[in-house]
Design brief:
By secondary structure, the chain is an alpha+beta fold. It folds into two domains: 38 residues; 124 residues, btk motif of tyrosine-protein kinase itk (Irregular). The chain contains six helices and eight strands; from the N terminus they run H-H-H-E-E-E-E-E-E-H-H-E-E-H. Strands 1-2 form a two-stranded antiparallel sheet. A two-stranded antiparallel sheet has the order 3-4. It has a two-stranded antiparallel sheet with strand order 5-8. The longest helix is centred in the N-terminal third of the chain and has 15 residues. It is flat. Bound molecules: zinc ion (2 copies). The site of one zinc ion (ZN) has 7 residues, from loops. It comes from Penicillium atrosanguineum. This is C2H2-type domain-containing protein.
Length: 182
């Protein structure tokens, strides 16, 4: 009778589980690629999961419908930045803010840093409630988008048309000419 309560197979399974949960995304991508290249069944499975026939892709208004060949099943939405399934998209699937969240001068009154410095990812994370969207006056804390739409690929997304620089320029114009919120 072995003194270990776990069989070697069970231990190996447990460890693999842990390794997969903790490995870097990069390592897992490389591993998946090599598994797919080495094992035909795995390759087939991956193709089945990641591609769909363009005939079952939901037609998004304003977006050119795909060709006949298989297309990617999962895309990243240019508006909400979430990954979505192109076969399950609908006109209410996406919630996002078409505008930009600016650091609010009054809410940051205790801070000495200029607004350009406050307008950073670090501050967004630390003070989400102090960043106000110019589309709806909502803040980053209760980040429910004010616009409802289809998930859209990057090409037809709202905000891809407005670059961050454009928005900063608008912001400068606003703050130099008596900021008006209404
Ligand atoms: Zn909004
Ligand atoms: Zn979306």
């Amino acid at each position: 009778m072995p003194d270990s309560s776990q069989t070697p197979a069970a231990t190996a399974l447990l460890n693999l589980d842990h390794e997969i949960k903790t490995a870097s995304e990069e390592r897992l991508r490389a591993l998946l690629l090599s598994i797919c290249n080495e094992i035909p069944e795995a390759h087939k499975k991956a193709v089945k999961e990641l591609f769909v026939d363009s005939s079952i892709v939901k037609n998004v208004p304003g977006q050119i419908a795909g060709t006949k060949r298989p297309v990617s099943r999962y895309e990243r939405c240019g508006n909400c930045k979430e990954e979505f399934d192109v076969t399950e998209n609908s006109k209410t699937s996406c919630r996002y803010h078409p505008g930009y969240a600016f650091p609010d001068e009054e809410l940051f009154a205790d801070h000495d840093e200029p607004l350009e410095i406050l307008d950073s990812d670090d501050y967004r994370k630390s003070y989400p409630e102090n960043f106000i969207f110019d589309c709806c006056d909502g803040n980053l804390m209760d980040d429910i988008g004010c616009e409802v739409d289809w998930h859209r690929s990057l090409e037809t997304a709202d905000i891809s048309k407005r670059t961050r620089l454009d928005m900063l320029k608008e912001y400068d114009d606003q703050s130099s000419s008596e900021y008006e919120s209404e």
